[in-house]
Every structure is written in structure tokens, then in C-alpha cells.
Amino acid sequence: MTQQDPAFTSHFAQVLARRERELSALLHAGETIVDDTDAGSHDVTDFKDMAAEQTAATIDDMKTEHAAHELEQVLAARRRLQDHTYGLCIDCGEPIDRRRLEALPATPYCIACQAVHEYADSAARR
After folding, report:
1. Which of 104, 62, 68 is closest to 86 using CA atoms?
2. I want to staple 80 with a disulfide (CB 3.0 to 4.6 A). Which of 71, 86, 89, 117 is the partner?
3. What does the alpha-carbon distance between residue 95 and residue 102 come to, in Å, rounded to a whole number?
4. What is the pLDDT of residues 57-86, one digit of tens each?
5. What are the residues facing 88 on neighbouring strands?
6. What angle do the packed helices 6-39 and 47-82 form, to 10 degrees?
7. Dihedral sign for Cα atoms in the order 85, 88, 90, 92
């Protein structure tokens, strides 16, 4: 089965559309929770409670940031489906292994190019 096969395209179009809906719902639910918690008053006097709330808020922020980033990747993958470049690495142009696409449908890179990006990211953080 090639990357241009209609069954391939249809399968991943469905997978990506489903993930887009899930992420959009997650982000919308996160906005609702933030709006609801902002409306109430907080009478926190215990430092442990304050620390727990702050930790929970930080984790929620990180989850929201991750979901927003993944949604961007999903939308980009759906655009690649439309222009018939889905399944090809955006760096080297080689086909991305089908097993990798099944595990990470929005991935834009083959394994080799992903490793290069991860190495560059880790080197930049040092």
C-alpha cells in the first residue's frame, strides 16, 4: 500500500479528523473549567492547599499547551493530506513508515529526521 492509495488517505483522514475533534473538545473543556474557577472566590489559608492548587494549575496549563501544539500538528497533517504529501517526511521527502504513522498520525518526520530534530532541540537547551 502506497502513501497515495485512496484507502491509506481515507484511513488517515478519519484518524486525524477524530483526533482533531478530541483535542478541540479537550481545549474547549479546559477553557470552561478556567472560566468556572475564575468566577468563584478562594479562601485558601493553608500553604499545602495553595501549593496543591498551584501544582494542579501548572499541570493543567501544560496539558492545554500540549493539546494546542498537537492540534496544530494535526491540522498541518490534514493540510498535507489535501496536497498529497501526507506520509512523506517534510525534511527529506522519504516515505514515513506506516507503523510510525499509525502510532503518531500527525508526525511530519521520518524516524531519522525526527532524531536529528530531537538532538538539535536537546543541544539548544544546554
Report:
1. 104
2. 86
3. 13
4. 888 888 899 999 999 999 999 999 999 999
5. 95
6. 150
7. negative
Tell me the C-alpha distance between 27 and 71, whole Å. Answer: 9
88 phi/psi in degrees, rounded to 5: -110, 135
Q: Which of 106, 99, 87, 100 is nearest to 15 (CA)?
A: 106
Euclidean distance between CA atoms 82 and 9, whole angstroms: 9
Reported pTM: 0.76
List of residues 6+ apart from 42 with CB closer than 8 A: 53
* CA distances from residue 28 to 34, 36, 38, 95, 126 in whole angstroms, order as listed: 10, 12, 16, 34, 35
96 DSSP 8-state letter: P
